[in-house]
Amino acid sequence: MQKLRIGLIGCGGMMNQHVNGLVTFDDIEIVAVADPHKDRTDAMQKRTGAKNAYSSHTQLFENEDKLDAVYICVEPTAHNNIEETAIARSIPFLVEKPMTLDMAQGAAITKAVEAKGLVTAVGFQDRYLDLTDRIKEELADMKVGMVYGSWLGGVPQVWWWMRKDTCGGQLVEQNIHLVDMLRYFFGEADSVFATCNRGIICPSEFSKDLPAYDTDDFSSAMITFKSGLTANLMTGCFVDWNKGNAIRNGITIIGRDKSLEYSLREDLTVYTAQANKTYKREIDQSIRHDRAFLDAVRSGDPTAVRSPYADGFKSLLLADAANRSMATGQLIKL
Fold first, then answer.
1. What SS3 state is found at 157?
2. Mode of pairing for the β-strands spanning 52-54 and 69-72
3. Is the per-residue pLDDT at 287 higher than 80?
4. For residue 240, what pLDDT is reported?
5. Helices 309-328 and 176-186, packing angle to 10 deg
6. Which of 123, 244, 258, 301 is the most exposed place for a label (fewest CB within 10 A)?
7. Quick check: 30 and 22 in contact, CB under 8 A?
8. Angle at the Cα of 314 (from 311 to 317), degrees rounded to 5?
9. Is the pLDDT of residue 243 over 90?
10. Which one, of 68, 66, 34, lies nearest residue 50 by Cα?
């Protein structure tokens, strides 16, 4: 079997998470890496054995004419003609979320991908959890009354996360994972109303080397789905982990005769009148996600991916609508 030739665009933390799995696959070859920071490309070359390193995605595309797929892991505002070039060259791609903060760009990429029938994936790896499969099974015969969830934590110490105009805010940048899970379980949303505030986090507590913090400390979004179901989603980055403030994040689904409590990437407890049963996560969802994408690339089947670009863009649109609701104080119809 001929190995798939893979290019990596962006060599930061998220790309290294993908590489954890990629280096275990014997049917691919990472042939080129690109990042503006030479220390990152040097480290990635050493880790992957990539022959070529470039300081930009433009150089990578210009010099690598036999790529079978590319991975794109760059900050939300750095999607400058990356996906568009991959599409023009008919190169399948996996892109980390959020794919852009420019909804017009996302819509144009969605249209171009679908017109070309290109294999794509967005980094919603939680769709590949074994716990997610179990939740889908439990929901099949369940009458759901209420849903609520949370992603509460701290502030990642990277420059682009500090400002809402470069990260999109925590709901778009991070809790979009649970937004996507809600869509995966319950279908498309009809409307969203969200509020946010600041005042817990002091901007001066961060390094002076970082941009001034100005994003939301916390937010709450009420999402109404087309089925009539309503879900409440809490987001916050004010939790001080260093003081032992452990939070149990995830999604709780309450039904008439049973309830499901999903603890983020850890376990699922099913509550019924007869018994309570807990299922522990047994697989690495990121590796399963990467494997599914690469298998789809080899087969040429865009439908073999659980989170193709067009579907992932719907999750981004929902999260962006929540941001617009926070900004205007209005209910946003989708």
1. coil
2. unpaired
3. yes
4. 83
5. 120
6. 244
7. yes
8. 155
9. no
10. 34
Beta bridge partners of 191: 224, 333
Contact yes or no for 136/127 (Cβ under 8 A): no
Which long-range contacts link 261-264 to residues 24+ away (Cβ below 8 Å)?
A: 262/131, 262/135, 264/151
Q: b/e for 53-91, b at 16 or more Cβ within 10 A? A: bbeebeebbeebeebbbbbbbbbbbbbeebbebbbeeeb
Report pLDDT digits (tens) over 25-76.
999 999 999 999 999 999 999 999 999 999 999 999 999 999 999 999 999 9
Helices (H), 157-256: 164-167, 170-173, 176-186
Kindly report the number of other CB atoms within 10 A of residue 35's CB atom: 25
Can you point out the beta strands (E) in 35-167? 52-54, 69-72, 93-95, 120-122, 144-152
Residue keyed to tokens 């954890």: 20
pLDDT at 1 over 90: no
Beta pairing class for 276-280 and 93-95: unpaired
Query: HEC string of 61-84?
Result: HHHCCCCCEEEECCCHHHCCCHHH
Residue recorded with tokens 């150089």: 59
What domains, with CATH codes, occur in the chain?
A: 4-125+286-308 (3.40.50.720), 129-282+318-333 (3.30.360.10)
